[in-house]
Amino acid sequence: MPRLRFNLLAAVILALVTSSSTAQTNKLFIPETLSGPIYNLNMAPSLHSFYPDATTATLAFNGSYLGPTLILEKGSDVQMNVTNQIGEPTTVHWHGMHVAPKNDGGPHTVIADAATWSPSFTVLDRATTFWYHPHLHHKTNEHVYRGLAGMIIVRDAAEAALALPRTYGVDDIPVILQDRRFSPQRQFVFNGGGIGESGNTIVVNGTVEPFLEVEAGIVRLRLLNGSNSRVYQLGLDNNASIFQIGSDGGLLPAPVELTRLRLAPGERAEVLLDLSSSNGQNRTLMSYSSELLRGEPGGVNLGPGGPPPGAGNIDGTDFQILEIRVSGSSSITSIPTSLIPLEPILESSATRTRPMILNNVPGPQGALAINSVELDLNVINEVVSLGDTEIWSVSNATGGPHPFHIHDVQFQILDRNGSAPPANEQGLKDVVLVYPGETVRFITTFEDFADPDTPYMYHCHFLGHEDGGMMGQFIVLDPNATALERSLLPEGDFLLSNYPNPFTDWTTISYSLDRDSDVKIMVFDAVGREVKTLFEGRRAAGANETIWKAGSVPSGTYFVQISINGKPRSHAVQISR
Ligand code: C2O
Ligand code: CU
Ligand code: CU
After folding, report:
1. 88-95 average pLDDT score
2. Ligand 1-lining residues (CB < 6 angstroms)
């Protein structure tokens, strides 16, 4: 005890003398847990004490900042009662969970102010760490920044049979990483726009300068990058190994030993730290952000505009995240050698490859886009057939990285630029960071939840990019869906396809119109250069077709953009010769 007091005093003195203190001063807050079958969540404005000298206005679920950790059992039926008292509409999305689109909490499932949304569903996912957060279009960046987010832990029998730490808050620790910027009055500084908020103050579970007390033994951290736009490069201060045991969608086949773990917004990683011989010592979880790429969000800023490192800016610097104080001893002292096997989905089982090009809307200063179009909530960008296994090929044609996220499914990464992903990315994922010039191919099966009415989303998880429209929508459609079901597609929507695809010389582009319309059909290349105008004029309601004879246009991915009464939608096509 006297020694602890001495450390605290030393920390205070040090903090007064230098701006970078080495000891952290606040005990890490551990969110309370809620267990099923009924989960009551109430979103409301609140006040949170990040600092002893003032309170900060926040939004929160149930408490003063963030929300409770939801403990779910695989196979159980749950009901969520989500009440919105924040004074404006929002939504709540169960990020990573395999639920029907109506239960997914995407931008279409708006919870009006003062309303309660009560989805119920069966927990189908394997044991893992998910999270929940608002998803209202144009508002996600702000609602998350102000404090609306929480962790979800799914448990199952297979995980329970492993010799892993699983006492919540004791040796199984939620670690929600966020960065915030505070005004001199200790209020959140929120600017909006751009890539999404970033800050110069790390908060973990809502605690600034946190420390965690654990017993000497194996400690499990459930890391969630809940930042709006910051990538972290995690490591221990003594460069000791971290053993990653889980990725977004579940446990890995075996622990992966790492000294650095890169975590992009939306991603989760479960890791084990071996602190069994660290009794009486302190370790610090760091972000070695000087190792991030120049221009990577969280790395050294590109060009003018951003403040230089140092001057109130932590980008590109190495900083502390969580101090871990070790004392006593725990009973779990070894890292298991194997975890949960994962059956690889075979590439040969895929019915198609769907290109997803991260790029810009064609034209000067076009906004960030996927497949050349921004989100239009009335347009279904992709239609997937129920039961199909597909490869999604995500290529980044922009100058910066983007964390690509898909709803509904967990995927397996096939390759990054043709090479197998690192071992810690060979598990189930729902977010993948894609670097400029890179193509990441992943494979997944759309086994459940055909619904012609409500789309699922895919998007960049930098929340400013997401709000800015770097997002698309897909529906899962029963291949036997009737014409009536197809006609239930959101109003003004239409199906756009081409055959054959890929093609060598020509392809037929088919689309349907719900009324007579002015139509313009253009082709762009992957970086948004115009290739050709195929048609411009009036077309009648119903099914329509246009043929593209590609002539000498080289092999590659192109976008057919159809503007209907001035509203563009686009579709990727491939020439392969
Ligand atoms: Cu974490 Cu579409 O979201
Ligand atoms: Cu999600
Ligand atoms: Cu992005």
Report:
1. 98
2. 93, 95, 133, 135, 266, 405, 407, 457, 459, 461
